[in-house]
Write a sequence for this structure.
């Protein structure tokens, strides 16, 4: 039996050196959710492939944690950045590229009128919460069991696992979050009609209900009717409804989750794909809501709106020219080629999930690949997943070893084991991924872990 860990150590000496050196000065490298099963550092990435510091090539299913619908470093984006960079890296004041990208973001979403740019999805959801509170005078924010909306205190909560499934309570995710802040989060049960009654009951306190059209940790499609009813309940309860499209926007389809689930939100948050691989965040919404970002009551009134106290949304790098150029190039390509990109991406994604699930079923392997369009999460243990609480953790050693072997067989999925495909993953890459999964399952079975 091959000692995979020793083989990887021999294969990735420069990554090991980088790991040992960086540990001296970095308290955390990016985030713990990106921890690899073995020290691994990227030298370059193109298309569906990543190359490490030792020159080893791998098929990547990380895709930058979601932004790269066209794969790493697509020509259209690289050319746009190279063209923009000589004219200035950052201005700190407006540039005409902001309007261009904003119009592309709004193009497939008829319910949305205006955009505010930031630097991350976290900033986008922070702006959504602040705007909702400013506009409604209410404080609570409704979030769903299993959701993820960034790392600011107003959304960084997880359900208390001792609380009932249909009536979860919020628990701060990590240290440093004041209890009174977590107390302003109304934790709601995902894909459960009990959420509707809880929204109605808290309508006088809820400023906003926010939801991912597809949960990144639980990617499933069978949610359209439930999402549409959720939207209706929020409207009837005078609670603002926001869809968090930081991951799903322009990935599921040209119109993201709003298109595939036929949703018309009050607010929508974006990130990842709209930056073409550069740091970005954006909040979009109806004009009467977005007026709160106009830093003058007089200007709000001149636009025909009842004035409200403005929401401060200052950011040094928001709307910077490199991000605007990269995002514009990325979205223009997706818009102009959407009839080719999205159907093929869906075909390859469904083929991959079906092959892995068929293999697991035929071989009696206790794992299942969840997928919704090009978003994936392999879960060990449970066969029926309704919500995040159905994901079991009884096969942790097998799961850890599986991803180590997957890396050895040339496929990368880090951290939380949330994965993506891109348009650069063709038949050959998908076939290689399927083979690597099957070999990795066989490896851990040989070790007696399943």
């Amino acid at each position: 039996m091959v000692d995979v860990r020793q083989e990887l150590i021999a294969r990735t000496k420069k990554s090991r050196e980088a790991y040992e050196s960086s540990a001296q000065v970095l308290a955390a490298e990016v985030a713990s959710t990106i921890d690899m099963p073995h020290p691994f550092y990227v030298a370059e990435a193109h298309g569906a492939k990543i190359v490490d510091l030792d020159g080893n090539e791998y098929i990547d299913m990380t895709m930058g944690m979601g932004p790269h619908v066209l794969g790493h470093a697509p020509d259209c984006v690289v050319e746009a950045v190279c063209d923009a960079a000589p004219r200035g890296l950052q201005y700190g004041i407006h540039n005409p590229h902001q309007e261009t990208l904003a119009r592309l973001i709004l193009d497939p979403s008829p319910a949305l009128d205006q955009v505010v740019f930031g630097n991350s999805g976290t900033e986008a959801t922070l702006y959504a919460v602040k705007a909702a509170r400013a506009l409604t005078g209410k404080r609570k924010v409704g979030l769903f069991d299993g959701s993820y909306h960034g790392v600011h205190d107003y959304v960084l909560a997880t359900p208390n696992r001792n609380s009932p499934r249909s009536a979860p309570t919020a628990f701060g995710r990590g240290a440093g979050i004041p209890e009174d802040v977590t107390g302003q989060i109304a934790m709601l049960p995902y894909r459960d009609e009990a959420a509707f009654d809880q929204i109605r009951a808290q309508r006088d306190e809820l400023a906003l209900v926010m939801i991912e059209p597809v949960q990144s940790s639980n990617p499933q499609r069978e949610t359209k009717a439930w999402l549409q009813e959720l939207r209706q309940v929020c409207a009837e309860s005078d609670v603002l409804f926001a869809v968090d499209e930081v991951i799903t926007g322009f990935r599921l389809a040209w119109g993201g989750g709003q298109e595939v689930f036929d949703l018309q939100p009050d607010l929508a948050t974006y990130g990842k794909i709209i930056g073409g691989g550069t740091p970005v965040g954006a909040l979009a919404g109806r004009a009467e809501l977005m007026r709160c970002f106009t830093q003058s009551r007089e200007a709000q009134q001149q636009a025909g709106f009842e004035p409200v106290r403005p929401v401060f949304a200052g950011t040094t790098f928001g709307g910077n020219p490199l991000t605007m150029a990269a995002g514009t190039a990325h979205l223009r390509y997706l818009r102009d080629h959407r009839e080719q990109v999205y159907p093929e991406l869906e075909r390859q994604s469904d083929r991959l999930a079906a092959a892995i699930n068929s293999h697991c079923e035929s071989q009696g392997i206790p794992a299942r690949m969840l997928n919704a369009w090009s978003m994936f999460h392999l879960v060990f243990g449970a066969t029926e997943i309704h919500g995040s609480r159905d994901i079991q953790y009884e096969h942790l050693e097998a799961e850890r070893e599986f991803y180590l072997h997957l890396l050895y067989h040339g496929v990368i999925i880090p951290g939380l084991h949330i994965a993506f495909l891109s348009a650069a993953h063709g038949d050959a890459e998908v076939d290689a991924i399927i083979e690597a999964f099957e070999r990795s399952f066989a490896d851990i079975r040989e070790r007696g872990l399943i």
User: Anything to note?
Assistant: The first strand starts at residue 42 and ends at 46. The longest helix spans residues 338-363. The domain at 75-336 is CATH 3.40.640.10 (Aspartate Aminotransferase; domain 2).
